[in-house]
Each structure stands twice: as C-alpha cells, then as structure tokens.
Specification:
The structure is a homodimer of 469-residue chains. Chain A has helices spanning 18-37, 51-54, 59-65, 90-99, 143-160, 172-181, 186-196, 199-202, 204-213, 218-228, 242-259, 264-277, 325-328, 341-350, 375-389, 404-413, 424-428, 450-465, and strands spanning 41-42, 48-50, 68-70, 81-85, 109-117, 129-138, 165-171, 286-288, 302-308, 312-319, 334-340, 365-367, 395-397, 418-421, 431-436, 441-446. Chain A has 469 residues and is α+β, with helices and mostly antiparallel strands. Chain A has two domains: 18-350, 2-Layer Sandwich (BirA Bifunctional Protein, domain 2); 363-465, 3-Layer(aba) Sandwich (Rossmann fold), CATH 3.40.50.800. In chain A, strand 12, helix 15 (375-389) and strand 13 (395-397) form a beta-alpha-beta unit. In chain A, helix 1 runs antiparallel to helix 5 (143-160) and helix 5 (143-160) runs parallel beside helix 12. The longest helix of chain A is centred in the first third of the chain and has 20 residues, at 18-37. The first copy, chain A, is elongated. Chains A and B meet through helix 1, strand 1, strand 2, strand 3 and strand 4 of A and helix 1, strand 1, strand 2, strand 3 and strand 4 of B.
Chain lengths: 469, 469
C-alpha cells in the first residue's frame, strides 16, 4: 500500500507535535486571560469567507496572496473560486459588526485568536498559516481606547516575561502634515510612505534613491528623509530607561510642534495618549516615533508597532475609523492591535523563556502492566488508573505485557516521573509500589493512599519548577 | 463606500459571538483536561494538506466533499488545485506518524481538537466547518487500548453532565462472521453493511427491500435483517440501569456464540473489552450491539458509537490497524475515537446544561468616566482600572464623557455587576464609590481596598452560581 508521496506538511505550514502545542497553548492562554481582564470578549469567524468579502481589501499585492477555494460539484471544472481563506482578522470583524449590529454593544471590544493564511513565499519565520491575536475596540474616538490597547498589549508581553519591548507610536495625520510640510501632496503620500517605511532597514541613501526613482528631485527626497530620519531613539539600539523614553518623547513632541505647527490638535491627541499611558502597564514602553508608517492603508489615526531589541516587530495596530463602514454603510470608529503568535514563540524559544513546567513529560504516572497479566490483573490496573485520575493526575497505562524493565525504561524515556507497580505481593497486601524515576527511589504504600501520595509529590515538583514570584 | 454585498458567513459556516465562544471553550477545555488525564498528548496539523494526501482516502463520495484550493500566481488561471482543506483528523494523523516516526514514542497517544471542512449540503445541525475532538492510540493491539478510549470518552461526557449516554460496541470481524453465516460472501459485505446501517432509521422492511434491490433474494435478505435486528436494547428507547445493560451484554454474547461459533476468539476479545470496561468510567455505558456497522471502511476491529437518548450519535470510532500503513509503508495498530463538538453543544444547549458562570457578563467591573473628565481624571480612571486588573478582575473602562446614568445603564445592559465611580468628593478622600448593579446597592470604600472588596464579591457570586459538588 505504501507509495512515495511526501508526508511533509504543505510548504509554509507546520505540524505541531505535543511540546509545540503546549508552548503555543501557554502563550495563547496568557493572551486570552489578559485580554479578558481588559474587558475584551472572544469572537471566532469561519476559516473561509465568500471571496468577494476579501478581494479588494488588501491592495493588489494582497489579492495575489489570498488562498482561493474552487467551487464544488459540477462547477469544479470551471476553475472558478467562490470562497477564500481568511487573510486577516480585521475584515471578518468588519463583516461581523455589520451583520450583528443590533446584537452588539455600542462599544464592542473583541479579541480573536485564530489562524490566517497568506500565500507568501515561505521564509525563516514567515509561514503561510500563522496565528494572529487581535484586539479591537469599536464605537469610540476617545484616546482612552488607544491607551487601553497599548496597556493590554504591554501586559501580555510583561506577563510572558518580556521587559525590553518598545511600542513605537505615530499618527497618520501627523505623517500627512509632515509630508505636506516638505512638499509632498496628499496624492503622493501613500507611495512616499512605502519608501520611507524602509528607512530603518536600508538606510537614508537607499530611500533617497528610491524616492528619486518615484520622480522626486534630490533636494525634495533629502528633505523627506531628513524629516523622518530624526527619531531620537531607534528600537534597534539598546533599550533605554523609562526616563530616557520620557525625555525623548518630550523632545520629539516639541520638535514636532516646530516642524508642523498646524498639526497642534493632533499633537495634543498624541500627547494625551503618551500621558495617559504613563499610568498603565504601557508605562516606559511607548516611544513617539515620527518615522513609523505601518503598511496598511486603512489606518486613519494613531498607529503603533511593538518591537523587541534586535528582533523586530511582534505586532502592530492603530486606529481605523472608516473600514467598518465598507460593510456597514456608516462609519464606526475603531482601534485595534494584532500580535503575531509565531514571532512571540520564536523569541521566547530563543531566549529560553518557557517555564520548566512546559517541558513536562507526557504523563505524571505510568501504571505498569504486570507481565503475563490475566484479565483480573488487567482490570485491577485499569481501576488503579481511574483512582489516580480522580485526583487529576495524568495517567498512562502500559498496554502490553512486556518485561517490567522495558516498561520502566519507556516511562523514563518519556519523562514520566512516577511508575506504579502492582505485583502479586502488593495485591495480596492491598498495596502498590511507587517508583520515582527521577529520584531513583521507590516506596510501597497502601493502595488507597497511592493517589494522594503521588499527587503531593507532583505538586511539590511543580512548586520547585515554578516558584511563586 | 457601502455596497450591497452579503455580510453573512459563507453557507454552512457560522460566526461565534462571545457567548458562543465561551460555551465552546468550556466544552473544549473539559475534553482537553480529560484527554490529558488519560495520557493523550496534543497534536495540531495545518488546515490544508497537499491534495494528494487527501484524495482517495474517503471514497468517491468523500472526494466530492473535499474543499480544494486553487494554485496561486501564474497557475491560478489553470483552475488546478494543489491543496485541500482537512476533511478529518485521522488522515493527517497517519501522515504525521509516517513523517515523525523517529521522534514519536512506541505507543503514541494523541488528541487533536481542530476544525474540519466538508462540502456537505448544509442542514440543521450539519455544517461545512465543524470541530472534531479526536483521540487515537497507536502501537498496541491490546484491548486495554480500546477500553482506555471507551473510558476517556465516558469521562468527558460525565464531566460535561451527561448521564444517559450509551456506547454501542461491535467488531468488524464479528460482523463479517455474521454476514458469512447468512450467506453473504466477503465481496458483498461492504454493500450489505451500508444497507443494514439504516436498520434503526428506516426499519426492517425498508432494509429488506434495499437488499433485494442489491440482488439478494427475499429469504436471504430477511435472514440478514433478522440476524441484525435482534439487539436486546435500542438506544432510542429509555436508558436502562447498568444491571440491565450487563444482562443484555451477557445474553447477546451467548447468542453470538451460538450464531457464529467459529468467531469465538473475536468474542473473547469483545468480552475482555466489556469486562475491563466495568472497572472504568465507561461502566454501565457500553452495550454490545451486533447491528452497529460504522460507515468508514478502514476499521478492522472493535467499532464504537456513542449516542444519547433521543438525539443520536455524538461520535464514534474504532480500531484501524492498516490505515497508518498507507503513509508509513508498514502497518501500525491503532484505535481512535472522534467526538463531535457541535452535536455536544446542541444537546447541552437544548438541555440547559451550561453552568450559570458561562452566562457571565462581558466584564466584572465598569470603571466609569467622570463627565467632563480632564486629563488628570482620565489618567486616574485608567490607574484604577490597572489596580482592579491586578487582582485578576475583568475590567472595562467607559471611554466617553457621557452622563453617569447612561454609563450605569450601559454596564447594566451588558450584565456587568459592579460599577466604580470616582467623583470629586471621592478623589479628595482617596475613596471610590462601588455600585452593585444586581443588588442595587452602593458603598464608598477606601481606594486602596477597592480591588479586594470587589474581588471577594465576585468570588462569592461565582460560588453561589457553581456550588461545589
């Protein structure tokens, strides 16, 4: 029956073996708990959408990266697609807000942690199936909303053990005013931002060349680059102390007041976000950064991006007050943030940030099977397993009548700390022998006290691995 | 910007609003915890597979129901598909076992809780995107494996609050022997089983007609039906007591020994499963049922299906000792079970089995915003929210300077029990006023004790809703 077909997962996707899933679940659980603490509620949408829902929402590049699903049945032969895999979580949210407008509260705050699919060329750290962890807050233009989002994202990262992250903050209308001030009209701003977005990566000279190729003369291109290449702090450098951050923000604000005095009301809004953040979990992490552009075209106000020293972006977001209107027919103010699960896990793995408890074995206890067990003995082993599970131990039962040594090696190889043996002697005395394969010790205890005996030792081990802070 | 495009989810799929997600997460969490307790480990695979991995694995009918994904880029125009959405969790598992054979333990026990997609015609309770909760145990032919699976599935259902479920048990080789005994040769058995599988639904006369249309003479068709229409208990009738079950199993076993004496070694295996189950969570739930056939062709041994009175199947499974070999090139014995999340949720909803705690509001507390708040007051509200979140309360902050009455109504409408008010008086006294919107009471407490004050009341409320058993 065997054929030669590949058993690898499709290009750009991954299988997650038990250890992988446990790490992912740990991170997702932290994200979920923090988002709940901020009053966000869970939403889930289908993996695919009607194709018209997605096409045209992500620009020409995006359209090409959407996975499209063939029509079924007699239409399959036409090669036409009527469905497409979710490309992000924001467009489905906009559809949901339109569809359920009468059931949703005025200020709808939702989180959504689900995979999205993009037919990008796979590369290190870039996948075709990856999870986004989104929060979005709809219905209010208040900067409190933006601050709550900055705080929630910060609390997620702090809870996961990050302390060296920076959230760069900028504002789309401020960018527009800055570009205007160096002579870039509204029509040319979008292209210019695409070029300027690469400033950190390629350096000023390359960006000037890029702008020249887009029709700027050298002087205008230089003015542009100088206007944006002036962040006091770059996230690629070592992370400064909170007071250095605060001073940098102050100085950036006053320079912006000089550079674009006509944008003072926007600067007031930005200052309010910075000031209010100081009393939240985002304190000491938010850095006003005039060069932050963010790729997506739908942002209309504050924009944000979180990065970790030497790693780059872990996620980003901002205010988009018009997108919901594409489905709803009337605009709804909104602000959101998307954390990328895969990047977070890559960094946490590299930095060894996962707790020891996550490297737990496949079970807490192995109930061994007495070699040449008859039916009664097998039944007894299963009953014992039930008793151990009743105190919430994770219990495996060895299924085959192999030699005891082989069974114990199996437990040991699988990082199962305890093995329980019930031989003829033990059975006669209503006792069990418990082997601790880590301590290489063993003890025979009354059968009825075995569950508690092991439970206490497992709990003690977990306390050692994860001491209270 | 508004256009007329539909904002409904695609046909056969659903959006899950917050209450829906919470109920789903509750069930998934129970399933996960029980499976872990049985030593199963989590696995996740990509949403799509290379199309060749799936085609030909589910029969001709299945091939038609697979969602196929168009090639991308220049190949899009060809209308060819190279990927396909996961149709079940078993074939991806078989691929994973082949791919990672050197990393996986000898007895690989995995659970997988993920959506699958089938282009079935949508109907009440039948969706195109639905979750399966699978456990599979590989590497051993011991009936202990089958019993552990019966026990784990039973423990899931008991933990969720079901007590009236029946797991029908049969054996593929027993079915073969029974069919042989009424003159159906191996070649015709597959078709015959398809017809007999409808016995419960359409009754004996319809099945006899069906068999006649497949070329059986009337007498042979009747013999077939009589041979299978003789289960002592039907799950569609009221659920009997465990002792009635045990008696029914005994009588069924002895009749089978009479009907197919040549199958005695298989009957011994079945009896071992029944006997051992009596010492597990499956006790009193397993019913030997000679008419159970199960649709899928890959089963080779014990087959099982769990049903609830008046509802029908919640899931099923069995032993398939050859499927893994399709990818691996050598056979690996395996036994698995798949619970359907959607059916479980439908029944639990109809029966009002979700705990009150799941109908919780969107947050525990609303921090109100003092009308005409200045920056300092807004900062103070955010700081208070942080303090409340530090004791793990779910805290919403009202973002707009609306009238207080409107803010309180908002909290009340959203089932948020507590609202915190910090007015000028309170601020001067370093106090906060806490309104209990359920009890219609209010109390002013020192600001520093507010978090604990609310935390205790929320905990007390949860204890009332969910008393310890």
């Amino acid at each position: 029956m065997a054929d030669k077909q590949s058993t690898k997962p499709p290009s750009g996707t991954r299988d997650f073996l038990p250890g992988d899933v446990r790490r992912r679940e740990y991170v997702i659980d932290v994200v979920r708990r923090v988002y709940e603490r901020y009053g966000f509620e869970p939403l889930e949408t289908p993996a695919f959408e009607n194709i018209d829902t997605l096409l045209g929402k992500y620009g020409e590049e995006g359209n090409k990266l959407i996975f499209k699903i063939l029509k079924r049945g007699e239409h399959e032969g036409t090669g036409e697609a009527d469905l497409a895999l979710r490309y992000d979580l924001t467009v489905p949210l906009a559809r949901v807000v339109a569809q359920y407008q009468n059931e949703l509260p005025k200020f709808f705050k939702r989180y959504q942690i689900q995979p999205v699919w993009r037919a990008d060329r796979p590369a290190r750290g870039r996948f075709r199936e990856f999870y986004q962890c989104d929060i979005d807050s709809m219905g209010s233009t208040s900067p409190i909303v933006d601050v709550e989002i900055l705080s929630a994202v910060s609390e997620v990262l702090v809870t996961l053990g990050f302390d060296d992250f920076t959230i760069r903050l900028n504002h789309r209308q401020l960018l527009a005013a800055l570009l205007e001030s160096v002579g870039v009209s509204a029509a040319g701003q979008s292209d210019t931002l695409v070029a300027l977005d690469k400033l950190d990566k390629t350096g000023p000279d390359a960006v000037i060349k890029d702008l020249e190729s887009r029709g700027f003369d050298h002087e205008k291109a230089s003015r542009c680059v100088n206007m944006f290449a002036s962040d006091a702090i770059r996230t690629t450098t070592r992370l400064p102390s909170p007071s250095v951050f605060a001073a940098a923000n102050m100085s950036q604000l006053s320079r912006l007041h000089q550079d674009v005095p006509e944008a003072s009301s926007i600067l007031d809004e930005v200052q309010a976000i910075l000031d209010m953040s100081a009393d939240t979990q985002a304190a000491g992490h938010v850095l006003l950064s005039r060069s932050l552009a963010r790729g997506l075209s739908y942002y209309t106000g504050a924009i944000m991006e979180v990065g970790v020293e030497g790693i780059g972006s872990l996620g980003g977001g901002g205010r988009y007050d018009n997108l919901i209107g594409m489905f709803l027919g009337r605009d709804v103010p909104a602000c959101g943030f998307s954390l990328g699960l895969e990047r977070i896990i890559v960094v946490m793995t590299e930095r060894n940030m996962f707790k020891d408890a996550l490297s737990l074995g496949s079970a807490d206890v192995l109930v061994t099977m007495w070699p040449d067990a008859d039916d009664a003995i097998r039944r007894d082993a299963l009953a014992l397993a039930s008793e151990l599970r009743a105190v919430d131990l994770r219990v495996d039962v060895y299924p085959e009548p192999d030699k005891l040594g082989k069974q114990l090696r199996y437990a040991s190889d699988r990082d199962v700390q305890f093995a329980v043996i019930v031989g003829g002697d033990e059975r006669a005395k209503k006792a069990v022998t418990i082997k601790d394969l880590v301590a290489s010790s063993q003890e025979t205890v009354a059968r009825e006290s075995a569950p508690q005996f092991i439970r206490e030792r497992v709990d003690a081990g977990q306390r050692t691995k994860n001491p209270e802070p």
